[in-house]
Amino acid sequence: MKTKFLSAFFLILSITAFAQEKVNFTEEFKKENQGKSTVEINEVKELLTIMLAITDFGLENDDMFEQKGDYYQRVLKHFKPYKEEEIIKTMNSLLMKNPLEYIFFTGNAQTYFLKNDVLIPNNAYILPANKVANVKIEVNPITTYKKEIEDFAKKSHFSEFYNSEKAFYDKIISDYEKYSNLRKQWNWLEKNFDTKIDSYIVYTSALINGLNYTGGYENNNFHLIEMVLPTIQKVEGRSEKNSEAFNTRSMFTEIDHNYVEKPSVKHKEELNIALKDREKWVNTKAYGIEYYPDGFKVFNEYMTYGAFILYAEEIYKNDPKLLTEINNEVNAVMIDRGFIKMKEFNEELKNIRNKNKKKKIDQLYPELIKWCSLQ
């Protein structure tokens, strides 16, 4: 029996920035990454994801790990014989106590490179994923279990498996570059918000399902955003344009947290007052809505998807049928999650935007907050 409780919980992770002092962006690093957007199937991250996926906890959570497709079957065939290794049992115990351990392992994967089954420190990243929600760690779990992870990689012949899948990984990356429109989204957000980002990294895997998260790091006057996302989804029954919009939305609503939140912080007190009547804005019985406990966080989630609607209205303006589909789906998804005024919010946001087309979206907040307060 598969457990279905994680996806709603982990929606909060996309708005959680990890502590910024746990990275070290040298001048060389900045020069190499300035203005770049990359998609990567990180070797250490894939190793750790596979290890977590074959725990008893992982095998019982298909909302955390994608268990459809040939790749998952290849993973099971190759690695499941090693699931009784002590490190896998340890990971299972940790996950049972706190599912956030998934983030602390995979979110710190870039702190090491794997070479000849040995984990080599990456000096640019020290402990990037050190705080998620209200849970904080001081020690990198990969460092704690470094020898055990190395032993598993060697015993299971992980590097051989990883290298044998190169063509599969390359196809995943090329699909991202073809269908996700990351650069287009980035350019639009930089044009329409005051916030500026120096570099983006997308970490993906065919094993990722509903557990997506975003981290933001600022160090040495360099702002980098990383996103951990599923592979490009080709959903049966959708047109090619609708599929493109669906995949764009999945990425956009991760990226734009970094732009939406800054003006929200500026108006935090006003937002908490304007949306203080909680039952007008959320279905308090919806699962996961408790992770949006105040007006500030509720507004941020509305605005995250509202900004995508503004993007869609501009990018797909010549396709009214697709725009209707996008609007209807966003409203339905958000209402199902408990954000009951999504349709009204989007309509008002579009109205305000149409009256202020030359203004940055940051500048629309006061009028939108005023509307919220009158509901």
TrEMBL record:
Keywords: Signal. Residues 1-19 form the signal peptide. The keyword Signal applies. This is DUF4932 domain-containing protein. It comes from Flavobacterium tagetis.
